[in-house]
Amino acid sequence: MTTEGLTPKDRIVVALDVADLGEARTLVDRLGDSVGVYKIGLELIYRGGLGFTEELLRKGHKVLLDAKLLDIEATVERATAAIADTGAQFLTVHATDRKTLDAAVRGRGDSAMKLLGVTVLTNLDRADLGEQGIDMPPLALVQERARLAQGAGFDGIVASGKEAAALHERLRNFLIVTPGIRPAGADPHDQARIVTPSDAVRAGANYLVIGRPITRADDPRAAAEAIAAEIAAA
Ligand code: C5P
């Protein structure tokens, strides 16, 4: 599975990180089909985001539910099945262990929903991993968990632009979904390690998760179109 058949705009995943559903609706109305996928994260999920997911799907949009599941197997399996029933195209699950991953794969059943593993959150550094009793640099752990996810039958992983190149070399036919994207000269906000859309594509990213450079632009649609043009050029 690769990015073949996807147009540049199909590869843009807009992070709908907004305070409420009204704001999310306004953004989707403005962006329409100028982007490929809408990402709904924890803050919106707990403000009615699952109903909103179904609303977007009815309108023909694609949704990535960034639910970051992690629990005992029975719970992960049933939660994954419930999310698959919405018809969402992508779901994230923490790729910490094979039990969790296998449970998600069982829960997906024969639905077409793609499962994406979250390897190591990018806000964690080596000292934070040490606190958890893990004595390993973050990148090595990312690679280990990515292999675990692929072995379990996942479709891909979420990985920063810096990690994408290392993963792309080792994992064939595995989707790489990359956040922390900033067009050249854009405000980095709180992102510490950013890459441009072209760099992310060249590093092997299949999908680019982009929030504020689009959602806070004066003209979100124009911002999305400019990024699609950059992806096309890369
Ligand atoms: O606004 P911005 O483009 O920084 O938004 C990036 C999105 O990607 C946010 O929803 C953020 O939670 C998510 N994300 C990230 N870094 C990760 C994983 C997810 O920035 N490692």
Explain what you see.
The chain is of the alpha/beta class. The chain has one domain (9-233): TIM Barrel (Alpha-Beta Barrel). The protein is built from ten helices and eight strands. The protein has helices at residues 21-31, 42-58, 73-86, 98-108, 126-131, 138-152, 161-170, 197-202, 212-215, 220-233; strands at 12-15, 37-40, 62-69, 90-94, 114-118, 156-158, 175-178, 207-210. It has an eight-stranded parallel β-barrel with strand order 1-2-3-4-5-6-7-8, surrounded by six helices. β3, α3 and β4 form a beta-alpha-beta unit. α3 runs parallel beside α4. The longest helix has 17 residues, at 42-58. It is globular, with a radius of gyration of 17 Å. The model has no long low-confidence stretch (mean pLDDT 95). Bound molecules: cytidine-5'-monophosphate.
- Name given to the CATH homologous superfamily: Aldolase class I
Radius of gyration: 17 Å
Small molecules held by this entry? cytidine-5'-monophosphate
- What is the number of strand segments? 8
- CATH topology group: TIM Barrel
Top CATH class:
Alpha Beta
Distance between the termini: 20 Å
Helix and strand run: EHEHEHEHEHHEHEHEHH
Q: Structurally, how many domains make up the residues?
A: 1
Q: What proportion strand?
A: 15-25%
Strands across the major sheet, in which order? 1-2-3-4-5-6-7-8
* Helix content range: 40-55%
Give the second-level CATH assignment, the architecture. Alpha-Beta Barrel
Biggest sheet overview: 8 strands, parallel, barrel
Round the mean pLDDT to the nearest integer and report it.
95
